[in-house]
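in:
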């Protein structure tokens, strides 16, 4: 029997299955995906350029708006990059509180992802349940930081606000509530036969491809790669936790790391409850002392940041994966001389090319959602031909030459 000829299927840049604008050009045979071409670039906001027009204190507020879900992670890593460049050492208590909020953000992000995954699979009851559960961690963030989103909590040298005994008590009650729900949430996602059928052996990223394509976060750990900045390059108080916590892979719950979406579900669910235990660990071991080593912001800006000169690079393990910020400061220059952001989605987006191979049309939404993409974080540039005003494609060699030219232009 003759097969139907391949045909194109366009999804995007605006589509109900997409939460942000991206263009997918699929080559289909019947309902099977043969190939895919991904075209981002519809959501470029010029964040780095805007940051280079502001001083570091002003960029703090811009950094946490790189992403709405990982707002704390971006402000955290930006603080650390500037601290490296300006030789600022955060206070010990501030380091512990930074990790507390980072893990609270991981809890809310993983619960949000679980709800979106349920929605893409057609189970809106899961979406409603997980997002209802997520309200509790948002309440903790509001209690500690003052905001549910864009916490404005991190500052050079530590954090802006301390925790009170009353806040700690409220947080502990919510953590206890979450731990009682652990078996229920694991049962919903890991034992339902319909969910298993929809995510097992779907969107597979092999360990070899995860390493070759430089994937990060739960996506790469689902493939069995033990890559987690919190443990491979400890920062904050994570170094003190090394004896009590380990990198999470599907084997942590007794499953084989196949790299499919089911493996990602396992990793995120285990990390969710590990993050709760990490928060409790921080509260149990929270040292006394000041919450910041730089309490006078005016003196910090004028005396240290204005007179600082040098480069700083920092990494944190955001909920989606490794988040990297690079900054360069010049003496007597109030604005950042350079700011470069490498978000987790940038490292993960190429994995789609292998994950979509031989998938079915019905699997496209959950494969897209599985890497938890944040296109607004990732988009950096769209090349436009100055003569025609139209977007243009470039091959690898041209892109490499442009990158080298740009890098040399940044050199002091």
């Amino acid at each position: 029997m003759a097969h139907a000829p391949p045909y194109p299927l366009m999804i995007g840049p605006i589509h109900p299955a997409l939460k942000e604008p991206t263009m997918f050009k699929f080559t289909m045979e019947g309902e099977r995906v043969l190939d895919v071409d991904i075209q981002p670039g519809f959501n470029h906001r010029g964040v780095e350029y805007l940051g280079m027009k502001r001083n570091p204190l002003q960029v703090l507020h811009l950094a946490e708006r790189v992403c709405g879900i990982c707002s704390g992670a971006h402000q955290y890593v930006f603080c650390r990059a500037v601290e490296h460049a300006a030789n600022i050492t955060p206070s010990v208590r501030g380091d512990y509180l930074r990790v507390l909020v980072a893990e609270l953000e991981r809890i809310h992000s993983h619960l949000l992802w679980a709800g979106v995954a349920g929605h893409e699979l057609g189970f809106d009851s899961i979406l409603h349940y997980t997002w209802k559960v997520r309200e509790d961690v948002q309440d903790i963030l509001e209690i500690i930081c003052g905001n549910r989103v864009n916490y404005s909590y991190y500052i050079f040298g530590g954090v802006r606000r301390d925790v009170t005994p009353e806040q700690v008590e409220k947080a502990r009650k919510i953590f206890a509530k979450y731990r009682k729900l652990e078996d229920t949430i694991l049962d919903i996602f890991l034992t339902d036969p319909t969910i298993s059928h929809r995510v097992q052996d779907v969107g597979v990223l092999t360990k070899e491809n995860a390493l070759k394509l430089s994937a990060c976060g739960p996506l790469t750990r689902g493939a069995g790669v033990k890559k987690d900045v919190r443990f491979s390059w400890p920062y904050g108080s994570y170094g003190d936790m090394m004896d009590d916590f380990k990198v999470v892979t599907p084997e942590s719950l007794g499953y084989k790391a196949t790299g499919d979406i089911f493996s990602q579900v396992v990793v995120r669910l285990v990390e969710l409850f590990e993050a709760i235990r990490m928060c409790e660990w921080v509260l149990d071991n929270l040292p006394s002392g000041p919450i910041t080593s730089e309490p006078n912001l005016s003196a910090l800006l004028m005396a240290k940041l204005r007179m600082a000169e040098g480069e700083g690079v920092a990494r944190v393990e955001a909920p989606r994966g490794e988040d990297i910020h690079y900054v360069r400061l010049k003496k007597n220059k109030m604005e950042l001389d350079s700011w470069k952001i490498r978000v987790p989605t940038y490292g993960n987006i190429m994995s789609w090319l292998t994950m979509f191979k031989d998938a079915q049309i019905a699997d496209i939404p959950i494969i897209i959602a599985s890497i938890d993409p944040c296109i607004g974080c990732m988009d950096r540039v769209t090349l436009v031909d100055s003569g025609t005003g139209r977007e243009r494609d470039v091959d690898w060699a041209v892109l490499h030459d442009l990158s080298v030219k740009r890098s040399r232009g940044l050199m002091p």
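note: DSSP finds 17 helices and eight strands in the chain.
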